[in-house]
């Protein structure tokens, strides 16, 4: 329960934050004259600023609020999965893909990932298909809105539904104007705040290490021995090394092909800035991912994961931890308020990027092809883009309400299922488009369709088949049982199978071409 001082301080901090954000949006909006400006910006940003913006976009409220809740439930196995394997795989993928994608992106002058894919394969229908699939990213928007709602509602002691609606109105409202120009400004400030808050959160449990790491682990083991195991067979996400390591390596590599991540390098105007951009992004990103260790501190603070006799929901564990730990004295309260600001920044940074990328996709990749004659001039496109953001806001309110009232363990599962399905579908067209020559559109389309089919079949059909018909799938059976399942399993398998199918189609295509040339 927040004290009066904490509530008053939180109000002041949030109001000041809103004023600063609106000022930056107005500054960026004045330089946004076209859809290209909205999508890619018209300002020459420093590589450090863009790198900070990317790090903030990659590690959102999921990293600062939602994932530490899983760690509080399941312990060290979650740290290995979310704090080590996933970020290292994502960092490697980012470094490998950025330079090649940037060169391709500059060549085709793409505003969105769907547009890049369409231009790379010379297929408007493929671009449209990827634009439709990009709507799955709405689930990630819902995750961030719910996480922000939990943080702000806990800090201000307000009704969650009212807070959620206010967040949507504010963020979606200002994102109708600034786009990339304002987003890099706001993301840079948010990233700086997040760096400070990450250090505060990671060090907030220092007292638990007063007797050494062994004593720290013993405290966790006294609560539940599974908290200190490398695997947690009783968990829903970290049962064995296949789930913790293999699935997360595949997901980490593929996660970079999300539009608000991979297109960030296109904001750089000079090729010489790319290395500095990558160093900044990777270093800060790894720091942000380390914040999940806070979940262990939260479990020591709430051993039975209850507060005032009530169970703390997964998505509310870190907000409750921050209020509880940073409440002893004026200095602690001030630090706690700054941490709240950091948690808000973590959500806002990615939320802005998603709104910008998804709305641009709706406008440029879905509506423009359908109504080409009516959507020719930039002023009309910008108006349509604003209308798209309004609709996105309404959909977000509807879906977020459902996740606040009746989540399945966590909004994180809901979001992962949608987002993972999207980048599973986008992975092969991006990889083949970057590294292979003369790839026919049919080859990549087959891989995309395969990925979507396999992902949703594993997540929805196999559980039904196992339950209804008693199918036995060996060690894999446990991954498709129960009402809550790990989307990383469906995604990693979908990516592997679609990659195999894609290569088979590619080599078949190449053989046919050679046979035709030999005739």
Give an overview in words.
- It is a single chain.
- The protein has a single domain, classed as Sodium/glucose cotransporter.
- The longest helix is centred in the last third of the chain and has 41 residues.
- It is mainly α and 519 residues long.
- A two-stranded antiparallel ribbon has the order 1-2.
Summarize the structure.
The chain has helices at residues 4-29, 35-40, 47-58, 61-74, 76-108, 113-120, 124-133, 138-156, 160-174, 180-203, 213-223, 241-254, 259-262, 274-289, 294-301, 317-325, 330-370, 378-405, 411-435, 441-469, 487-518, and strands spanning 306-307, 310-311. It is mainly α.
CATH superfamily: Sodium/glucose cotransporter
Anisotropy-based shape: globular
Fraction in helix = over 70%
Question: Would you tell me the overall average pLDDT?
Answer: 87
Tally of individual helices: 21
What order do the strands of the largest sheet run in, or round the barrel if closed?
A: 1-2
First-to-last CA distance: 79 Å
Structural class: mainly alpha
Largest sheet, described in full? 2 strands, antiparallel
């Amino acid at each position: 329960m927040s004290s009066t001082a904490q509530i008053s301080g939180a109000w002041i901090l949030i109001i000041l934050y809103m004023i600063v954000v609106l000022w930056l949006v107005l500054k960026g909006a004045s330089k946004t004259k076209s859809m290209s400006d909205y999508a890619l910006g018209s300002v020459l940003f420093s590589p450090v600023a863009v790198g900070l913006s990317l790090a903030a976009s990659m590690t959102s409220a999921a990293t600062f609020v939602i994932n530490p809740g899983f760690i509080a439930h399941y312990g060290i196995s979650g740290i290995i999965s979310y704090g080590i394997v996933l970020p290292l795989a994502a960092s490697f993928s980012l470094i490998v893909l950025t330079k090649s994608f940037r060169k391709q992106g500059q060549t085709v002058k793409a505003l969105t990932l769907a547009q890049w894919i369409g231009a790379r394969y010379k297929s408007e229908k493929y671009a449209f298909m990827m634009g439709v699939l990009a709507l799955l990213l709405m689930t990630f928007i819902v995750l961030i809105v719910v996480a922000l709602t939990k943080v702000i509602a806990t800090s201000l002691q307000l009704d969650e539904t009212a807070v959620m609606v206010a967040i949507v109105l504010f963020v979606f409202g200002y994102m109708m104007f600034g786009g990339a120009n304002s987003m890099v400004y706001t993301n840079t400030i948010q990233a700086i705040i997040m760096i400070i808050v990450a250090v505060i959160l990671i060090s907030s449990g220092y007292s638990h290490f007063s007797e050494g790491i062994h004593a720290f682990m013993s405290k966790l083991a006294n609560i539940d021995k599974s908290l200190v195991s490398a695997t947690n067979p009783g968990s829903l996400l970290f049962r064995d090394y296949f789930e913790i390591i293999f699935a997360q390596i595949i997901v980490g590599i593929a996660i970079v092909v999300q539009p608000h991540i991979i297109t960030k390098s296109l904001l750089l105007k000079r090729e010489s800035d790319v290395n500095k951009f990558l160093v900044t992004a990777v270093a800060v990103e790894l720091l942000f991912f380390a914040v999940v260790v806070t979940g262990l501190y939260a479990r020591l603070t709430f051993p039975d994961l209850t507060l005032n006799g009530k169970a703390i929901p997964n998505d509310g564990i870190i907000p409750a931890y921050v209020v509880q730990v940073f409440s002893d004295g004026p200095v602690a309260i001030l630090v706690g308020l700054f941490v709240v600001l950091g948690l808000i920044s973590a959500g806002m940074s990615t939320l802005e990027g998603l709104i910008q990328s998804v709305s641009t996709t709706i406008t440029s990749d879905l509506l423009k092809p359908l109504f080409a004659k009516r959507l020719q001039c930039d002023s009309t496109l910008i108006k349509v883009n604003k209308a798209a953001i309004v609709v996105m806001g309404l959909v977000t309110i509807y879906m977020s309400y459902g996740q606040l009232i009746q989540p399945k363990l966590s909004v994180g599962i809901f979001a992962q299922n949608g987002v993972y399905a999207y980048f599973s579908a986008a992975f092969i067209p991006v990889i083949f488009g970057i590294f292979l020559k003369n790839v026919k559109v049919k080859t990549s389309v087959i891989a995309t369709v395969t990925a979507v089919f396999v992902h949703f079949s594993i997540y929805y059909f196999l559980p039904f088949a196992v339950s209804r018909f008693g199918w036995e799938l060996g060690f894999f059976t446990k991954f498709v049982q129960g009402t809550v399942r790990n989307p990383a399993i469906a995604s990693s398998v979908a990516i592997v199978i679609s990659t195999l199918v894609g290569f088979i189609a590619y080599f078949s295509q190449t053989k046919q071409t050679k046979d035709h040339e030999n005739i």
